[in-house]
Specification:
alpha+beta, 9 helices, 15 strands, 30% helix, globular
Length: 301
Amino acid sequence: MPDPVFVVFNPASGKGRGARLVDPVVAALRAGGPVEHGLTSAAGDEARVAREAVARGFTTIVAVGGDGTWGGVANGILQSGAADRVRMGLVPGGTGCDLAKSLGIPANDILGCARIIRGGATRVIDVGRIEDRYFVNVAGFGFDIAVIEDSWRVRYLRGAPLYLYCAVRQLYFFPGFPVEMAVDGEPGRREDMMMLVIANARVFGGGFRIAPTADLGDGQLDAVAFTNMPRRRRFPIMLSLLRGTHAKAPEVRVRRAASFRLQFAGPPAYETDGEWNRAGSSDLTIGTRPGALRVLVPPPA
């Protein structure tokens, strides 16, 4: 008999799309075996729902939503202490859904996602950690945060168009920020930056190819640093970011390492998997936990 599946829905993801996916996703998965599901009731509730499902004995936890939902469910699985025997499945239903792009999981294809989940092919991936939370896709500072905060004020777009629109607006308004970054214990270097993204996967912001060569299983993170630059240079850099060719620009520096120490003028705002956070300190260490999470993926060709 197929293993029972527990599905975590974020009804608020994708500006309400998550709620509309409950019936079709449950029906698609039920065709392959028993299914139970739960809905989040508040921001950050995904980890609790996932932990409770693991405590009940479920070993396949499906997250329906976007990167924030997936990051929350991943945190719940990791906090449960049972990550070595629990698999996470993904069904895109949120705003960005960027981790799915790195894993080859299709968007707008519920039946395809159900086949992947019931197929059982599993990939072990790394996760990043900052303060007391894990991230599966990226952690970001600066311009990245300004775009997220701007997106809260836009009601008539969603998905990649929303992030692209807000990114273009913030190209002209974001002032930059100072930060000192030390890599794997090396001496730090203080710079005025426009954006700093610590990437575990390859895509963020609804389709920007932030770290085209990142490897979810190499035990390292890719730090992509954009020094502050005149506004006339920002638009060309953004276009190159869509293509994944931004590393060629003199304003962009990429470092791959297992850990990064960041020192800010004060506790910064930052995002993990698209979710806004306020740091508890101005001194942050970002590290990686290799091979920490088992994810259901398309079978090898």
